[in-house]
Design a protein that fits this description.
This protein has 171 residues and is an alpha/beta fold. The protein contains eight helices and five strands, in the order αβααβαβαβααβα. A five-stranded parallel β-sheet has the order 3-2-1-4-5, sandwiched between helices.
Amino acid sequence: MTAAKAQHPARLLVVFQPHRYTRTQQQLGNFGAALAEADEVVLTDIYSAGEDPIPGVTVDALAAAVRAGGQPAVRVIRSLSDVPAHVVATAKSGDLVVMLGAGSAGIGVYDMLRAQMVADGVPDDEARGRFFVVDKIGMVTADRSDLSAEQRAYAHPADALAGWTRTADGP
């Protein structure tokens, strides 16, 4: 979030789909500080990845933890398919939308958002360029050889992001 805000000082809208109940439970207290720099946070239901739900570990508990960590602008939208309409209605020209989530689900939301933006008259290349994908390695850039075709569609040239400050390295 720090790097995104430093390089793109307009509004920052973060859509976050937590991955796994166990990870959400372990990191619950850290999400507030991690998301505090966003201007708005949209949370979707937890992607289970085959895990059974853990009592008390819910998107509502996560929303409360994020608010307690200093982010008052939190909206819970349980279904990923409902996220694009909200983002399109909320995002203003120049806003940066960052999707943090469980792999293909994140790309799927980007695809839905891009389609809505194009339908609203935004040229496809411009719509695609408004999205920055982060995976387990870090920012998705065109110089990476490990990208899926879905990720590659949103990859930015590495030199376009050269001035961005890295705050951590991937695994």
